[in-house]
Specification:
This protein is of the alpha/beta class. It has 2 domains: 22-54 and 308-399, Aspartate Aminotransferase, domain 1, CATH 3.90.1150; 59-305, Aspartate Aminotransferase, domain 2, CATH 3.40.640.10. 36% of the residues lie in helices and 17% in strands. The protein is built from 14 helices and 15 strands. It has helices at residues 5-10, 43-46, 55-65, 80-91, 107-126, 147-151, 156-159, 177-183, 209-219, 272-275, 291-305, 308-329, 353-362, 385-399; strands at residues 22-26, 29-32, 37-40, 99-104, 134-138, 169-172, 188-193, 223-227, 251-254, 266-271, 335-339, 342-346, 365-366, 368-370, 374-377. The strands form 3 sheets. Strands 4-10-9-8-7-5-6 form a 7-stranded mixed beta sheet, with helices on both faces. A 4-stranded mixed beta sheet has the order 1-2-3-13. A hairpin with a 2-residue loop joins strand 1 and strand 2 (29-32). It is globular and about 60 Å long. The structure holds pyridoxal-5'-phosphate. The site of pyridoxal-5'-phosphate has 16 residues, from helix 5.
Length: 400
């Protein structure tokens, strides 16, 4: 259960994991190196929306690994267009305008791609003067870890020590359409938001926020970019969290669950007239859209096409939410927020989120704290109601 001193000394200290070493996973369960089993309620920050080693995903990966794994984009391969077409069919109806797909690998790369596409669209199409484009982001955002992305983070740990920062971003308070309106001018090319802020603790915006942003962006010919890397692909009971408010973004970033926990697979999906500005040579990735990633991605899309998992997240989420509300009513939790099978729980001091996660670990449930007093729960969408109830019983016990 403990990290060896040797391993800790050569591994860069940029994480502080819970003291557990996992060796195997299947569905909602993982096993550690001492044979203890745990229910995984973190699901790789929603990368494992379909649980560990979903048979459809491992079968697709195994078959492709024995066939062709990498071509680079210098050559075409048989799965690239099918992947783009299937993803466009799934996400296209949920975005504004006829869709295009640009495959990348990690979430941060998808966000960087959206930033580049928005800027280039601003110069080539909107007519913003060269090098003047601005993008508006909100307080408490999490969009990844690259130097440009941490430039517009408001988390001191994520940002401090990594300057000089990339200019061209305006940070406004979260949840206010007026704040974004005031920050807009003729240089504004995009508003970049997470429909629900995951890293911040599953923070759900006011009802009118996203519809207000949509209307504002349309009015000023500004792109609404929704980072759905954590909120998307079934987590909230819908394919995109944006659907909860009936909002169609201009660009959507996807990652995490798009690779089913097997591969890093990300993409930007959105208006063809915007992504179309990224012509040959202007942007790329050695691994983006590789055959193995496309095989897994297509299998992931196959799991989402019927809508069954999304419906399941809604139904199970209502049942789960009622139980979580009881914990708040009983005073065991300070507050809770939930959308589908995604919850942010605030503990009551002096208990910290980390302490609660340690108690859960000792009782066979894996979860992760965020921002001191909050824990974030994201069970696999495939979890059984019995396992979900077991996890909630364990949470209740840990809080008592
Ligand atoms: C995880 C995450 C990212 C970054 O994804 P990586 O694959 O870790 O680069 C970006 N945006 C959101 C909302 C995320 O949750």
């Amino acid at each position: 259960m403990t990290l060896t001193v040797g391993a800790a000394s050569v591994l860069a200290p940029n994480y502080h994991p819970l003291p557990v070493t996992l060796v195997e996973g299947l569905g909602s369960w993982v096993t550690d190196d001492e044979g203890r089993r745990y229910l995984d309620l973190l699901s790789g920050y929603s990368a494992l929306n379909f649980g560990h080693r979903h048979p459809a995903l491992t079968a697709a990966a195994h078959a492709q690994i024995d066939r062709l794994t990498l071509t680079s984009r210098a050559f075409d391969h048989e799965l690239l267009l099918p992947f783009a077409e299937r993803l466009a069919a799934l996400i296209g109806p949920l975005v504004a305008g006829p869709p295009m797909v640009l495959p990348m690998n990690t979430g941060a790369e998808a966000v960087e791609t959206a930033v580049k596409a928005a800027r280039k669209w601003g110069y080539d199409v909107k007519g913003v003067p060269a090098d003047r484009a601005t993008i508006i982001v909100v307080d408490g955002n999490f969009h990844g870890r690259t130097t440009t992305i941490v430039s517009f983070s408001t988390d001191p740990d994520a940002r401090r020590g990594f300057g000089p920062y990339t200019p061209g971003f305006r940070i406004v308070p979260y949840g206010s359409v007026d704040a974004i309106r005031e920050a807009m001018d003729e240089t504004t090319v995009a508003v970049l938001v997470e429909p629900i802020q995951g890293e911040q603790g599953v923070v759900i915006p006011p009802e009118s926020y996203l519809p207000g942003l949509r209307a504002l962006c349309t009015e000023h010919d500004v792109l609404l970019v929704a980072d759905e890397i954590q909120s998307g692909l079934g987590r909230t009971g819908t394919t995109l969290a944006s659907e909860l408010w009936g909002v169609k973004p201009d660009l959507v970033t996807l990652g995490k669950a798009l690779g089913g926990g097997v591969m890093p697979v990300s993409a930007v999906v959105g208006r063809a007239d915007v992504l179309g500005v990224l012509t040959a040579g202007t942007h790329g990735s050695t691994f983006g859209g590789n055959p193995l990633a496309c095989a897994v991605g297509i299998a992931v899309i196959g799991l989402l096409e019927t809508g069954e998992l999304q419906a399941r997240a809604t139904t199970l989420g209502l049942h789960w939410g009622a139980r979580l509300d009881t914990l708040v009513d009983e005073g065991l939790l300070a507050s809770s927020r939930r959308a589908g099978l995604w919850a942010g729980l605030d503990v009551t001091p002096p208990l910290t989120g980390r302490q609660l996660c340690e108690r859960l670990l000792a009782r066979g449930v894996l979860a992760k704290d965020t921002h001191g007093s909050t824990i974030r729960l994201a069970p696999p969408l495939t979890i059984t109601v019995e396992d979900l109830d077991l996890a909630t019983d364990t949470l209740t016990d840990a809080l008592r």
